[in-house]
Write a structure and sequence with these properties.
single chain; 310 residues; alpha/beta; Rossmann fold; N-(1-d-carboxylethyl)-l-norvaline Dehydrogenase, domain 2; 6-stranded parallel beta sheet; 3-stranded mixed beta sheet; 9 strands; 13% strand; globular
């Protein structure tokens, strides 16, 4: 009984970037024994200093846990950590549960779920939203789909990591479809916010005044309110990088093309982020998409402040 209870409170986290580390720390606060895995040793060491443990490979991690949250960046990385030579799927015990939270195409999520099921493993297609701050606070929004048995196995993990859990369906891929919709809106809103701020700056309006007016007006959005302070402070330290939206809006456009569905706004936003990435801004915060207007329109953006806020 005691061993079963202890095992039930062990969780693995693969991918210790800003989101994955936030999940790992939230699980630690909730009383889990947390074992992390990341290709960057410094990230593993950071988790250890916070009271967690580290595994050298996903395969090694699978020998120590029966539930794991995956928060890497791309579908290729998910494929590697699940099914690669050192993948976790081969070492997780039968009945183990994978909470796959990376943003991936819905078709890939469905395929991964089928392959894991064939190996006797459960999966939740459970992408997340909310950014590093909410991840660290255990208040992410999770949009999950999968069999009821997987929800039951992961219930306490999801409760520790999320502020809001949406059960969007029983089939793998449905959660990723909803995340794709979210990223369409998020990417378009960031691109539109950058265009609006650049337009106002070019017209000679004080950028802080623009922000103050818009955030109390009908044109406001969550992304405008969250990202424009990065511009005002001249601080493009990456919370979510330009490259992420090149990937995520690419998923939107590719998925729509397979459906023969037009996405004119998402396609334009993708081109804006691609322009920023091609200009060497890919690893900067996604608000740096505004810098393309420095080149296109000759605007002068706010300089970095000594003590940036937001």
């Amino acid at each position: 009984m005691s061993d079963d209870h202890t095992k039930a409170r062990v969780a693995g986290v693969i991918g210790l970037g800003s989101m994955g580390m936030g999940v790992a720390l939230s699980l630690l606060r909730a009383g889990f024994r947390v074992i992390g895995c990341d290709e960057a040793p410094a990230k593993c060491m950071s988790l250890v200093t916070h009271g967690g443990e580290a595994a050298a490979t996903p395969a090694e991690l699978g020998r120590q846990v029966d539930r794991v949250v995956i928060l890497v960046a791309t579908a290729d990385q998910v494929e590697s950590v699940l099914f690669g030579p050192n993948g976790i799927a081969a070492t997780l015990p039968k009945g183990g549960c994978v909470v796959q939270s990376a943003t991936v195409p819905a078709a890939y999520a469905a395929d991964a779920g089928r392959r894991l099921a064939d190996m006797g493993l459960l999966m939740l297609d459970a992408p997340v939203s909310g950014g590093p701050v909410k991840a660290a606070e255990g208040r992410m929004t999770i949009m999950a789909s999968g069999p009821q048995e997987a929800f039951a196995r992961a219930e306490d993990l999801l409760a520790a990591a999320s502020g809001t859990l949406h059960r969007v369906g029983t089939e793998h891929g449905q959660g990723s479809v909803v995340k794709t919709i979210n990223q369409l809106l998020a990417g378009v809103h960031i691109a539109a916010s950058a265009e609006a701020m650049a337009f106002g700056i070019r017209a000679g309006v004080d950028p802080q005044r623009i922000y103050d007016v818009i955030t109390s007006s009908a044109g406001n959005s969550w992304m405008f309110e969250n990202r424009v302070p990065h511009i005002l402070n001249g601080d493009y330290s990456p919370h979510s990088a330009v490259d992420i939206f090149v990937k995520d809006l690419g998923i939107v456009v590719d998925s729509a093309r397979r459906m023969t569905f037009p996405t004119p706004l998402a396609s334009t936003a993708l081109q804006m982020f691609t322009m920023a990435a091609s200009a060497g801004l890919g690893r900067e915060d996604d608000a740096a998409v505004i810098k393309i207007f420095e080149r296109l329109a000759g605007i002068t953006l706010p300089e970095p402040k000594d003590n940036p806020e937001g």
